[in-house]
Amino acid sequence: MKILVTGATGFIGPRVVHALRAQERDVRVLVRRPERAAQLAAWGAELVTGDVTEPASLTAAMAGCTHVVHLVAILSGSSADFERVMTQGTKDLLAAANAEGVEQFVLMSALGTSETSKDSVPYFAAKWNEEQAVLASDLQHTIFRPSFVFGRGGALPLFVKQVRYSPVVTVIGDGLQRSQPIWVEDVAAIFAQAVGNPRAANRTFELGGPDTVNWNELYLTIARVLGKRRRLAHVPFGVARVGARVAQVLPKAPLTPDQVTMLQGADNVVSNTDAVDTFKLPLLGLEEQIRRSA
Predict the structure, then answer these.
(1) Residue 103, exposed/middle/buried by CB under 10 A (0-12, 13-18, 19+)?
(2) Which pLDDT belongs to residue 240?
(3) Low-confidence stretches of the chain (pLDDT beneath 50)
(4) Closest to 22 measured CA to CA, from 208, 195, 198, 275
């Protein structure tokens, strides 16, 4: 078994590679810039230079691989960017996997992806198109839809910093949208368990942590863990959207207008226990997630 991992240098990717290597799996990673993947190489992963937007590099990277874990995604950009990187990139990767006779294609999607949400923002449109491409392929597949993924890095440390230093914490909208934050290492462990697992074949799993909270409860939980007393100030969605639009001139804007739209959407919670029942892995609770990120 040889596993090709794309998106291995992102937030979730290194944890997935580490979990696979901890099981002594043979891992190859597709990277645009090998100098950013020194840690992956130190863990014993084979580096191959390429890009999901370059089909020829995917064919070369796929040679000899039996399984694929596809994690590549972008969070901001134009509709054309999402189409090029995520939708078309996934289709080209599937074509290379089909040609190689890959045994299993594992896709990272996102909770909230649906035929309805695909019309709301380009991110959900791209995730929906990725899923449809995987389902239409002849490959055995596993699709994961995680809720918000928390870890050291990513969004949670920013929330913790906000609560730690600001006596009044701003919350977009009414703060009532619910989610089930899941720890990044738990996500990685589930991915590693799924590779080559017949119980994961041709299934879609929703991933969420053991605790369900809305945004108000999340910030107050962070405050409690930090031993802080904080007031919440709610910012209307319209105001937040305008602010996000203005902030796009910054090199690293904290929020995009599309992300504000996503916060205005439906709850981000799992609808079943399929993942828990199938993989039977312990999941880190929210308070411990916060402590580890503080």
Answers:
(1) middle
(2) 86
(3) none
(4) 195
